[in-house]
Amino acid sequence: MKISLIPSRGGKPRAFIIAEAGVNHNGDLRLAKRLVDAAKAAGADAVKFQSFRSDGLVTRSARTADYQRAATRARSQFAMLKKLELGEKAHAILFAHCRRKGILFMSSPFDAESADLLGRLGVDRFKLGSGEITNRGLIEHVARKKRPIILSTGMSTLDDVRRALRWIRDEGRVPVTLLHCVTQYPLPVGEVNLRAMDTLRETFGLPVGYSDHTRGITVPLAAAARGAVVIEKHLTLDRRLPGPDQRASLEPAEFKAMVRGIRDVEACLGDGVKRVAACEAKNRLVARRSLVAARDLPAEHVLTEGDLLAKRPGTGISPADEPRLLGRSLRRAVKRDELLNWKRLRG
Fold this sequence. Notes:
Layout: E1 16-22, H1 29-42, E2 46-51, H2 54-57, H3 66-72, H4 77-82, H5 88-101, E3 104-109, H6 112-121, E4 126-128, H7 136-143, E5 149-152, H8 158-170, E6 176-181, H9 195-204, E7 208-212, H10 218-225, E8 230-234, H11 252-269, H12 284-287, E9 290-293, E10 308-311, H13 322-325
């Protein structure tokens, strides 16, 4: 079930960055297309929307979460979501727009019909949100399409994740990437628990990434440093817009800064081999020390510890070799602060 969803550059691992447009388009196709453009300009690898039919997703009496109610003033999830739907034609337009812009189109299906729509469009992978991890019917339906699955694990225990993976595995060999996630908008940094990425990786032996709902870009950069293979973050054109996820989203300039920061983190991780870097080799001569005469010393003088000091530059005999000099005599006189040289020593 393993898969690498990570494009590489020069053979080095590179996190797959998803701009989560989600429902930040507020049901407006023009706004959705602008989100695609912003994601591309920011350097994201993919832009992801949400595909659902309100009638099949939520009862008419289901109440909104606190963060949704604060952002939308909607009491009913149904009323809120109905305004955020994108129809089949809009999906096709967005898919084509992404192709023209050179960015991958993704969407999270919330029902079988929406998954089928995405399949017909030709998406090459599916993303299942945290709320669906116990939705056996949808998980199996998506798994039967035999395309890679990115599975968010917010609000879950290891047993929840294990069961969902079993449902996927029962449908055949489907590549899976797990995303650590905490389902709160916005998420306090003290609740992030990035070490859970390690637990997921070690427990299931699968690629692991991170879906972020914190404010700012610090946590996604930390996730990149911790080895996240996928990083997902909400994108909005303006956090002041109405909508349940706007406040926990990055605006375009911030998203671009995040992408740049992630790429910098990846560049600085290196291969783990401790060596003298090519860029620092010449500085050894400047920053390291050599053995010099502590005072004027006559020819044939036998060197003792008190005769030597370690001073810059590092172009002479290293202080590490001091024991090899002691007890040897000078072929000629040496001035104070003069660097010792093997040719000037007897023995």
